[in-house]
Amino acid sequence: MYMEKTIKELHEDLVNGKVTSKELIKESLEKSHEVNEKYNAFVTIMDDAKETEVTDNLLSGIPYGIKDNYSTKGILSTGSSNTLKDYVPFFTATAIENLNKANAVPVNKTVMDEFGMGGTGTTGHTGIVKNPWDPTRMTAGSSAGSACAVAAGVYPYATGSDTGDSIRKPAAYCGIVGYKPTYGMISRYGLFAFASSLDHCGVLTRCVEDAAIVTDNMKGIDKYDMTSWDSSNINLYKDLTDDVKGKKICYIKEICDINNYPNASDELKEHLENFKQKLELCKELGMEVTEVSVDETLLKASPSVYVVISCAEATSNMSNLTGFIFGPRGEGNTYIEQMKDHRTKGFSPLIKRRFVIGSYVLQAQNKDRYFHNAQRVRRLLVDEWKKLFKEYDAIILPVGAGPAKHLDGSKNILDESTSVLEEHLQIGNYGGFPSITIPDGFVSNLPVGLNITGNCYNDQTVLNIAYALESKMEYKNQIAKEVK
Length: 484
Prior knowledge:
The strands form three sheets. Strands 6-8-7-12-13-11-9-10 form an eight-stranded mixed beta sheet, sandwiched between helices. Strands 1-3-2 form a three-stranded mixed beta sheet, sandwiched between helices. Helix 9 packs across helix 11 and helix 9 crosses helix 12. The chain contains 15 helices and 13 strands. It has helices at residues 7-15, 21-39, 94-101, 144-152, 168-174, 208-218, 253-256, 266-284, 296-317, 335-346, 349-362, 368-391, 419-423, 426-430, 459-471; strands spanning 42-45, 63-67, 105-110, 130-131, 134-138, 157-162, 177-180, 200-205, 248-252, 288-292, 394-398, 435-443, 446-453. The protein is α+β, with helices and mostly antiparallel strands.
């Protein structure tokens, strides 16, 4: 199976004539239909995808997937919502245009949580995305379809977006790599906005090297996105190294100490024990590893901060979804009735709940108590992380409280004490920090991951640490195998 290879291996096979771009596309499309039938990973499969010329660019001629919140000219782009179920854009997102220039070949649009608002992969209008390791478990979200497809071997990479952990947690649950670079390294122009101050474009791959290759091709300053910046002097792939001797990393006691979880499940215990072993691996690689402490009250405030800020920004960003400009028009005798009908019928209950929260916290009488306070706490959390980055090159932490949760919820143990462990990746979005999740083992025969986050613009350091760790583990480029 060619699609189970890395980008460099595929490029070599293309250049040496072992396979053609046309043959890769055929294999990827066949696999797309197979995976869609089993796991429901795609909104659209582009059966008419055409081969491209193979050039010096490592991505040329190779298929990939696009999360369905990236605008693609002439191709259905739904954001996995009924409000845009028939929307075909007239322009393409800058990040995708950049991949087009590299002669990369998109073959499908992947299912996501509706408009990126969800962490389960269960709220897309086309249905639930199942985990390719175990279909009774979730993939996490919102980049659910992208994570599932890459893990299942449909292609070596897919685009994602990350507002709270939407690339990095699905990567952990699916046993692959999920990377969101520094805010603004990749233009957000053409990405459907959820919460603009938190949204990051990024990538899901099966190895760190591929994440560097793809990001190098997606990134760049863009006149259409005022938050983008010039990263032309950064060459993530070229400067990738596993020499991390002398790097200083830290982990946070309040998040990693098993004693903080009085009702810890066996899976959580095993997950944290597994993480401790990876700290020893860091030391073997020549890195200094230090335990640090962060105010637990501040950490516990993070999930609430996320809800308030993301819902407020979403309410504002999605006020244009009226049924007049995009999507199917609602019914009614007046434009107010038509708009109300469109939004009531078009959005799922989860989205409507978020809009209600967003509208409430932005009301004049509530704004200071909720929205402004959330912004203040966001600043305190970012300052705390910045303080750590003055002394340490990166923060390393486990992702979530174990492997993927059960879709039916029957065996999920809801424990309030693990909320920080589940949600700490949001802080990477508050500060716009580069952050990568890599697989670091198995719990209950299912993949789990660890996360490395660094200071803004220190993407190379973050990737190098991940690359070095990956080289000492056995999980590089792994393909999902269903647990029997």
